[in-house]
Design brief:
The chain is mostly helical. It is 76% helix and 0% strand. Helix 2 packs across helix 12 and helix 6 packs across helix 10. The longest helix is centred in the first third of the chain and has 32 residues.
Length: 340
C-alpha cells in the first residue's frame, strides 16, 4: 500500500513539474511570437477567454477522480444561459433569474447523478445523452432569438477587471481562484476528499470501507450542475448575449485540461494544483497561437492533440501494466488448456 501511494504521488509530482516546464516553454514561445503576449491587456484578455472553462474544470476533476465523467457541462452552461436570457426577457428581476438558473443547473446535475447512481447507467453514455438533451432545451427555450438587453452593471462583471487587481484579473478568474481553493481543500485535506480517491481506485473496496459511493457521486454531479450554471451566467454577462448555442463544444476543452493536469482517466489519481497548471498551459498556448494569426478553425487540432497526449503520457504506466496483466492471464489460460 505504501509503495503504491509513493508511486502514485511521485508520478503526480513529476507530471506537475513537467507542467511547470511546459508553462515556461509556452511563455517563452508567446514572447517570441508577439511583443503583446505579456502586456496587461493581453493577460486580461487571456483571463476572459478561459474563466468559465476554468470554473467548470473543478467539479470535473472530482468526478473523474471517482472514475466517472460528465460530458454535459457545456450544455448545462448553454441551457443556463438560455434560461437566464428568457427569464430576464420576460421581466424577471435579474437576481431571481440567476437564482432560478442555479437551481435548474443543480437539478440537471441531479438528473445525471440519478441515472448513474440509481439506475446504474455508465456516466459516459448518460452525459452524452444529456449533452444533447440540455442543448435541446436551450434551443426550445430561446429558439433563434437573441437576448442582449442585460443591465450594464451585470455585463460589466463579464468584461471589466476586478477592482484593486491592476487590471489583470477578471471576475470569472477571481471566482475560479476562490473555488479552486475550496475544491483543493476538500479534495486534499478532508476525509471526504480521500474517499474520492478510494472510490476511483477501487469502488468495491470503498463500499466495504463504509463509504457511501452512490450518495457521494450524486452530490458531485449536483455540484457540477451548480458550478456549470454559474459559469453559464458569467458567460452570458461576458458576451452580453444569451443565445441557444452559447458554450457549444467547451466540454472538450474542460476534459482536455483536467486530463492534461494529470488526473487519471481511470480514476483514483489527480490534484487541483495540476489542473490549475494545465489551465495556464492550455490558455497560454491558445493565446500565443491566436497572436500568431494561427488558423482559428484549426485550433481543434491543437486541443485534440493535447487531449491524446494528456491521456497517453500520464497513464502510460497504467496501459503497460494492464497490457502485461492481460498477456499474463492469456498465457496462463493457454498453459492450462495445453495441460488439459
Amino acid at each position: 500500500m505504501a509503495h503504491d501511494l509513493r508511486e502514485r504521488f511521485g508520478g503526480l509530482v513529476r507530471w506537475e513539474t513537467g507542467l511547470v516546464l511546459a508553462l515556461v516553454a509556452v511563455v517563452i514561445f508567446g514572447i517570441e511570437v508577439s511583443s503583446q503576449f505579456l502586456t496587461g491587456f493581453n493577460i486580461f484578455y487571456l483571463n476572459l477567454s478561459i474563466g468559465e472553462v476554468a470554473i467548470m474544470t473543478l467539479p470535473m476533476t472530482l468526478i473523474i477522480v471517482t472514475g466517472e465523467i460528465d460530458l454535459s457541462v457545456a450544455s448545462i452552461l448553454g441551457m443556463s444561459s438560455a434560461i437566464l436570457g428568457d427569464l430576464y426577457g420576460h421581466g424577471w428581476p435579474m437576481w431571481l433569474a440567476m437564482v432560478t438558473v442555479l437551481v435548474v443547473g443543480t437539478a440537471a446535475g441531479w438528473f445525471n447523478g440519478f441515472l448513474v447512481t440509481r439506475v446504474g447507467l455508465p456516466s459516459l453514455a448518460v452525459t452524452i445523452g444529456t449533452l444533447t438533451l440540455y442543448r435541446g432545451i436551450a434551443v426550445i427555450v430561446l429558439g433563434p432569438q437573441t437576448i442582449s438587453t442585460f443591465p450594464t452593471k451585470y455585463t460589466d462583471i463579464g468584461v471589466k477587471p476586478l477592482p484593486h487587481t491592476g487590471g489583470y484579473l477578471s471576475y470569472s478568474v477571481g471566482i475560479f481562484i476562490v473555488l479552486a481553493i475550496v475544491f483543493g481543500v476538500v479534495l486534499h485535506a478532508t476525509p471526504a476528499g480521500r474517499s474520492l480517491f478510494v472510490m476511483g481506485a477501487n469502488e468495491e473496496a470503498a463500499r466495504f470501507a463504509g463509504i457511501r459511493v452512490k450518495r457521494t457521486k450524486l452530490i458531485l454531479f449536483m455540484v457540477s450542475g451548480l458550478v456549470c450554471a454559474l459559469a453559464g451566467i458569467l458567460y452570458t454577462f461576458r458576451l452580453s448575449t444569451a443565445v441557444q448555442d452559447n458554450g457549444l463544444g467547451l466540454e472538450l476543452s474542460v476534459v482536455t485540461i483536467v486530463l492534461l493536469g494529470g488526473v487519471s482517466i481511470f480514476g483514483g489519481r489527480g490534484t487541483i494544483i495540476g489542473v490549475v497548471l494545465a489551465i495556464a498551459v492550455f490558455a497560454g498556448l491558445q493565446n500565443a497561437l491566436f497572436l500568431t494569426n494561427f488558423n482559428q478553425q484549426a485550433t481543434g487540432v491543437v486541443t485534440g492533440s493535447l487531449l491524446l497526449l494528456s491521456v497517453l503520457i500520464p497513464n502510460g504506466s497504467d496501459f503497460v501494466r494492464r497490457g502485461r496483466e492481460f498477456m499474463r492471464r492469456r498465457r496462463l489460460r493457454t498453459q492450462g488448456a495445453t495441460t488439459a
